[in-house]
Amino acid sequence: MLRFTSPDPQRTRHALLSLVHALVVGKVDYCNSLPAGISGNLIRRLQSVMNAAAGLVFSAKRSDHITPLLHELHWLKALERIQIRLGVLTDRRLHNTAASYPANSMTLVVPATRCSTLGDRVFSVSAARTWNALPSAVRAAPSLASFRQKLKRALFRSSFPDG
Predict the structure, then answer these.
(1) Residue 104: CA atoms inside 13 Å, Cβ hemisphere, count?
(2) At residue 91, what are phi and psi to the nearest 5 degrees?
(3) 100 in any annotated domain
């Protein structure tokens, strides 16, 4: 006689988390520097997808608070996910065009735009603004790996100040 045992909840959560990363988070993060400067309504919709994915991983009820789940998963909020991508792309661009890795925490010139709804979304504008808003300790990271680590830590702290 074949007997089924209940699956290990930790193993089930890990498998579900892997699926969510592959099918949801990967799609949200794909080209996520493009939505820079989008409306608050669209940011909320992106965040709603992330919230639903976190709720799925933890089998949360609809009435449960999602912020602690996002914190436990160590997921940045939608706006910070866009900022981290812009920061990394800008860091890579600065690294690839400079003769040596920039040792100071330089600021970038933000090009003037005529149309705030479309012009502010252009990569050169949104990337420069994101870069200039970063703490100088993050901008002065000695390597790309260090930069990513410091940037995620800074954005995570701003997303979850009590955690």
Answers:
(1) 3
(2) -60, -45
(3) yes
Residue 100 pLDDT class (50, 70, 90 cuts) = very low
Give the integer Cα–Cα distance in Å for 24 and 161: 26
> Is residue 4 one of the residues assigned to a domain?
no
Q: In this structure, how many other beta carbons lie within 10 angstroms of the beta carbon of residue 118?
A: 10
Other beta carbons within 10 angstroms of residue 83's beta carbon come to 25
| Spatial separation of the C-alpha atoms in residues 148 and 154, rounded to whole Å | 10
- Whether the CB-CB separation of 85 and 66 falls below 8 Å is answered with no
Please give the model's pTM, rounded to 2 decimal places.
0.67
Residue 2 lies in a domain: no
Residue with more model confidence, 116 or 129 = 129
Domain containing 37: what range?
9-159
If pLDDT is split at 50, 70 and 90, which confidence band does 33 have? low
In angstroms, how far is the first alpha carbon of the chain from the final one?
49
Is residue 29 domain-resident? yes
Packing angle of the helix pair 123-133, 78-97 (nearest 10 deg):
100
Token output for 123: 């990569």
The number of angstroms, rounded, from the C-alpha of 51 to the middle of its chain's C-alpha atoms is 14
Dihedral of alpha carbons 5, 64, 40, 92, sign: negative
